[in-house]
Amino acid sequence: MRVVALAGGVGGAKLAAGLEAVLEPGELSVVINTADDFDLWGLRVCPDLDTMMYTLAGLANSETGWGIREESFDALAMISAYGEDAWFKLGDRDLATHVLRTQRLRAGKSLTEVTAALAGALGVRSSLLPMCDEPVATAVKTPEGLLEFQEYFVRRGQRDEVLGVELRGIGEARVPDGVASALTAADAIVFCPSNPIVSIGPILAVPGMREALVSFSAPKVAVSPIVGGKALKGPADEMMRTLGYEVSALGVAGMYEELATGFVIDRSDAEEGPEIETLGMRVLTTDAVMRDEDDRARLGREVLKLCSDLGAR
Ligand code: FO1
Question: How many whole angstroms from 55 Cα to the centroid of ligand 1?
């Protein structure tokens, strides 16, 4: 079954790994949020692309979910020694990725081309597709003013109340040809359990993307990133609350109305199932928390089964 998964960082990478484990090689394409990307010390850093790439290459740091395992931070220590505030933890091996990406982008390659080459060199079997090739940057409106995404997320530890989200550059973004052809060829689409506002939201906001997904007639299954009223990781729950969404699996399902035809919730949210079904989605209730590799593959298998039940092409 050819599957296109839409994903942000850590939660998305876990499910993508589970899907990859149960699909045939080459059957998975992942469309990845790039609105967290930013420039640091002259380098282009793409956190969600890299989290996905390292996870699918078997290199990820399993404790943090981002970065490379058994990483050293000597370059960062030197940057600190020069008096810089080293608030974003770029490891030595990770740095190599940003150096090469930046060099290749400057030489005129697209982010799609650069990502394919880097992921291919690390042995990743799936297609990793940036949501667009144009730079898009999330800015978060807070009582302290407008913050760059990583400033909000990492430097200030997500402590600010989120009053709104701006996607700078989104108007100039285009659905890349590789994403359009992956969607045309897909038998099913999976919305990974990523933050619906700042991870999946930017992907859907690329002009033409939402329309392409709405008109996609095969099954579209979303997995809730909210379990028991809390985000599996990160600030999705707080963000949903301050932006006026109900913080529940049902609240997330409402955000995917007209997009998803199937919705996966955790057993602890089972009582929300019937109301989610009234939104026109078939609900699967299961253990939606991925604690280890077995959980990822099990959830991947269950998601694909729901896609088949919904009539994957
Ligand atoms: N997240 C952190 O919380 N602290 C960090 O220092 C940090 C460094 C980092 C370096 C490379 C990379 O690819 C990701 C990194 N992340 C870090 C994760 C990242 O900022 C966020 O998880 C995503 O942007 C949200 O999806």
Answer: 14
Domains for the chain: give ranges and CATH numbers.
Answer: 3-39+126-134+171-309 (3.40.50.10680)
**Phi, psi (rounded to 5 degrees) for 2:** -85, 120
Cα(72)–Cα(60) distance, integer angstroms: 14
> To test ligand 1's pocket by mutation, which of 154, 155, 158, 195 has the most ligand atoms within 8 angstroms of CB?
154
Ligand 1 lining (C-beta closer than 6 Å): 8-10, 36, 47-48, 50-51, 66-67, 88-90, 94, 150, 153-154
From the CA of 54, give the closest atom in ligand 1. Answer: 13
For ligand 1, atom 4, the nearest C-alpha belongs to 154
pTM of the model: 0.97
Cα(211)–Cα(189) distance, rounded to whole angstroms?
14
Per-position b or e across 248-281, b if 16+ CB within 10 A of its CB:
bbbbbbebbeebbbbbbbbebbeebbeebeeeeb
Instruction: Show pLDDT as tens, one digit a residue, over the chain (313 residues).
Output: 999 999 999 999 999 999 999 999 999 999 999 999 999 999 999 999 999 999 999 999 999 999 999 999 999 999 999 999 999 999 999 999 999 999 999 999 999 999 999 999 999 999 999 999 999 999 999 999 999 999 999 999 999 999 999 999 999 999 999 999 999 999 999 999 999 999 999 999 999 999 999 999 999 999 999 999 999 989 999 999 999 999 999 999 999 999 999 999 999 999 999 999 999 999 999 999 999 999 999 999 999 999 999 996 5
Q: What are phi and psi of 19, to 5 degrees?
A: -65, -45
Looking at ligand 1, which atom is closest to the CA of residue 51?
Answer: 13
